Structure formats: structure tokens, C-alpha cells
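C-alpha cells please, single chain.
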Amino acid sequence: MTDEPAGNTGPPMKLVAIEWPESGTAVFANHLLAQTDSKFVYLTFAQVVPPLVLPSNNDDLQRQMDQLTGVKAFPVAKVVVSVEEYRRMVGTMQQHLHNVEQLLKKKADNDADTVPPVTS
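Here you go.
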């Protein structure tokens, strides 16, 4: 017996369990830069923190805002995947978003608290 799908003409494949460690560092990323070439997709997750502006009046606010030329992005992770793997990742994220939206709808009715994980 094999774990290989029927009709597979590619290299032999076997499904295996993935063990996820309990520990890991969670980082905050609120910005995503997605780039691509003909073979790979490059995803850079970054933390962008707005500048602290403490005006004493509206004129001071405008002066401080006029002086801003940009904000810094601090990369927290860079992921490079094939276009095919990117397709699978996006499908997984779409399924998870659907699950989250269902949870939010149920939570509005006080029916649920968690969303089961989705993996690709």
C-alpha cells in the first residue's frame, strides 16, 4: 500500500506529519511587500511604526507633518517561495480568512471562540 495518489507519474511522494514546536518568537508585522520574478515570489513582512507627532497647535502639527519625508520599515521576516507554493499559500490563507469570517459571524451570536488551523 502507498500514500501516493493514483495516477501520479512524478517522483514518489509520501505524506508525513509536521511537528510544530511549542516555542517560537512572535513578531508584529503590519506591512507586507510582495515582489516576484518568473520563478519566485518574495514576501517581506515588516513593522512600520508611525512617527510620534506632538503638536502644541494646528500650525505646529502642519509644520511637523511637512518635515516628514518618510517612515522606516523594520523587516521581521522574508519568505521566498516558488510561484506554485505561493498559490497554495494564498489558497490556505483564503480558506483561513473564510473560517475567520464565519467565526466573527458566529461570535456576534455568541456561538464560537476559536478558528481551527488551516495548513497547505
